[in-house]
Design a protein that fits this description.
Elements (H helix, E strand, L loop, with lengths): L4 E6 L2 E6 L10 H16 L5 E6 L10 H5 L3 H15 L4 E5 L2 E3 L1 H4 L6 E4 L4 E3 L13 H9 L1 H8 L5 E2 H7 L4 E2 L5 H13 L3 H12 L2 H18 L3 H12 L9
Parallel strand pairs: 2-3, 3-4, 4-6, 5-7, 6-9
Antiparallel strand pairs: 1-2, 7-8
């Protein structure tokens, strides 16, 4: 559907593969649009019962392609459209995560039901480091799932969480050897497909709870994000990133 995104079907499971390993699977606006369209199609089709997300190569997703993101407003809007789509998606989502999951590479996982991680998986949400704020309702969901202290280490300090810690915290379903990761995720998606579909979807809705609360937090994060990305802090952080130097932030 798009350069960098490969879509396939496997016995009722729609597989979305982030396929841009030369850029560590960083997402462009076109890639966001392709995933959003795939989710919309899967939502409408009765023969699709679940979605599987994975990345090709040694990295699950390095987050936004910052050059693409900074080239115009379309990058941010495509990202927000994707976030709203995955948060509102009503069928089970399984994720297979290897290597780095940065920014949206981590926050999208809060909306997945089964997350299987390779031992080398590392989850990072470095939004504050870039002078911006979290998205995908992660400011709500990270403290709820991880506890405030662990969420603060990730969201305020930008510290990574490794696969073992994520497993202990309940963020991932299980840690699986890298060579078996994708097959394991596919097998679990196949188990979902064998369940009574209406009972499965109803149970998922009950587990997800108040969807409006998540939707409102996504909107609030987007409002603050749009302000923050125009700030002197964000401009300095992005400039330092592209210039490969430490940022200098001034107080007062």
């Amino acid at each position: 559907m798009s350069e960098g995104i490969a879509i396939s079907e496997n016995d009722g499971v729609l597989e979305i593969l982030i396929d841009r390993p030369e850029k560590k699977n960083a997402l462009t606006s076109a890639m966001y649009r392709a995933i959003t369209a795939a989710l919309a199609s899967a939502s409408e089709r009765r023969d699709i019962g679940a979605v599987l997300l994975a990345g090709r190569g040694g990295t699950f997703c390095a987050g936004n392609d910052l050059a693409d993101f900074m080239s115009g407003p379309e990058g941010a809007e495509a990202a927000f459209d994707f976030i709203r789509a995955i948060a509102a998606f009503e069928k089970p989502i399984v994720a297979a995560v290897q290597g780095m999951a940065v920014g949206v590479g981590t926050t999208m996982l809060f909306h997945c039901d089964l997350v299987y991680a390779a031992p080398d998986a590392a989850f990072v949400m470095p939004f504050v480091n870039l002078g911006i704020v979290p998205e995908a309702a992660s400011s709500l969901l990270a403290p709820a799932i991880l506890g405030h202290a662990k969420a603060a280490a990730m969201l305020l300090l930008g510290e990574p969480m490794n696969a073992e810690s994520a497993d202990r915290a309940g963020f991932v379903t299980a840690v699986v050897p890298s060579e078996r990761l994708l097959d394991h995720a596919r097998a679990k998606a196949a188990v979902l497909m064998a369940k009574p579909p209406e009972a499965l979807l109803a149970t998922r809705r009950l587990m997800k709870g108040d969807a409006e609360q998540v939707s409102l937090r996504i909107a609030e994060e987007a409002r603050v994000f749009r302000q923050a990305v125009q700030s002197p802090e964000a401009r300095e952080a992005f400039a330092a990133f592209f210039e490969k130097r430490p940022p200098v932030f001034r107080r007062g």
